[in-house]
Amino acid sequence: KAGVTQTPRYLIKTRGQQVTLSCSPISGHRSVSWYQQTPGQGLQFLFEYFSETQRNKGNFPGRFSGRQFSNSRSEMNVSTLELGDSALYLCASSFQDLAVGETQYFGPGTRLLVL
Amino acid sequence: DAKTTQPTSMDCAEGRAANLPCNHSTISGNEYVYWYRQIHSQGPQYIIHGLKNNETNEMASLIITEDRKSSTLILPHATLRDTAVYYCIVRSNSGSARQLTFGSGTQLTVLP
Predict the structure, then answer these.
(1) Are the Cβ atoms of B93 and A48 closer than 8 angstroms?
(2) Which residue of A61, A104, B63, B68 sits 20 to 30 Å from the alpha carbon of A81, by its own alpha carbon?
(3) Least CB-CB distance to B97: which of A48, A105, A106?
(4) Facing B99 at nearest CB: one of A33, A88, A108
(5) Neighbour tally for B82: CB within 10 Å
(6) Res. B93 pLDDT band, cuts 50 70 90
(7) Pairing state of beta strands A110-114 and A10-13?
(8) Do A109 and B46 touch (CB under 8 A)?
(9) CA B36 to CA B52: how far, in whole Å?
(10) What digits encode the pLDDT tens for the residues A74-107?
């Protein structure tokens, strides 16, 4: 069974631009969560989508948004990029939503560099 | 979720067993112990999880003490590719959303 895939793997943007990242979960998984990982802050939860609905949201500004499609694929959008948005963005999928405590499986991540 | 404590770093000789400890003294009854690892700049990889019984899969074994206050991840025959940061996480299986929270983890270096 194929794992979680994320595209693109690397991205360079400039301040003020916006970016869209994509995640395809493991086949059959309906929950997709997004995390931001930086050396200083570690792994931080952005949000979770389950059955096209945002179930939970972390403590990030409204510039960070996402959506999930009927095939469970998810996209994350960051508008008005700031230098501090440079990070590894990770997508994780699980069969059920996070409240059930299902094991999450991560993708390889998208490395975003904001100049 | 309960807090975990892990050593900052460990070395292990290639071919030997790597034993990675984790303390979780405030763990509660419905909390599982999860282990993930992350090779530099890649996504975290799920290894194993358990509640109170010892668990084994193709990657590793998880030994949880009887009082559940600590656990040990065992990689039976470490290879150079096992060099990574290993994260021990305690996570409930019910209630409100249980997103993963990684601590600092243990940097395991497998030496040739």
Answers:
(1) no
(2) A104
(3) A48
(4) A33
(5) 19
(6) low
(7) parallel
(8) no
(9) 18
(10) 999 999 999 999 999 999 999 877 666 678 999 9
CA distance A87 to B13: 33
Query: Within 10 Å of residue B61's Cβ, how many Cβ atoms?
Result: 17
CA neighbor of A60 nearest in space, from A40, A39, A84: A84
Q: Which residues of B39-55 are buried (b: 16+ CB within 10 A; e: fewer)?
A: eeeebbbbbbbbeeeeb
Tokens of B59: 């990657």
Q: What is the pLDDT along chain A (115 residues), one digit of tens a residue?
A: 689 999 999 999 999 999 999 999 999 999 999 999 998 888 899 999 999 999 888 899 999 999 999 999 999 999 999 999 999 999 999 987 766 667 899 999 999 999 9
Label each residue of B86-110 as H, E or C: EEEEEEECCCCCCCCCCCCCEEEEE
| pLDDT one-digit tens code per residue, B7-47 | 999 999 999 999 999 999 988 888 889 999 999 888 999 99
